[in-house]
Design a protein that fits this description.
single chain, about 260 residues, alpha/beta, two-stranded antiparallel sheet, elongated
Amino acid sequence: MTGDATASARATSQYATTTGNLTARIALHAYGTNPQSWYAWLGERLPMAGDVLEVGAGTGELWRRIGHPRRLTLTDFSPAMCARLREVPDARVQRCDATRLPFRDGAVDAVIANHMLYHLDDPDAALREFARVLRPGGRLAVAVNGRDHLAELDALGPAMGRPDLAVGLHQNDVTAETTPARVAAHFTDVTVERYPDELVVPAAEPILAYIVSMIGPLTVAEESAARAAIEARIDAEGAFRVRKHTVLISATRGSR
């Protein structure tokens, strides 16, 4: 990780007491060009049979979009997120650390980790826990982003005098490029599938809301510089285009 704070400390500051930052980021992805949303695409690929556990479930937006299996357990470290998760009908909610799951060995048939591994100080410890709580033959689904994900948004940081906007500055080294090998250290039958999408944003406001969700309120000068850079791109190209690089890594818990 390249920032001054640890990945978990950053996650705590962002998510422990509010769902607003995550909600602002989710909203930006409504401007994706893939007619099949991330949630619908993911839902077609997730293991849904038996006892399903999602670790780091955030606001539970996935299950609001696609419905959920009959036996679903949702966890998150954040009290604010857990409060939202309790709104998901018939789901069990448990507040806990992803690296110390309060479940017995072989307790579940599927583990889902949707965009959460990069918030951990020790992602390999979490992967070991995922393997521990899975039954032999159980399935793992992990979603992560590539190094170039949202690169055009990161580039706005220097333009507004805030290089700390860069997403990777606040996270560990979990990426689409590095994570398959990490998963393979604990699981078998590892496969990787990329979700095809880009953002085409027609106005500055959703991007400014994303920036605030990342680094907090902007000064007048910072907002002016960001708006000028965004609107210059919109004027030139008709929209502010942002590359996405998201993959789903699937794997199986071996018999050992």
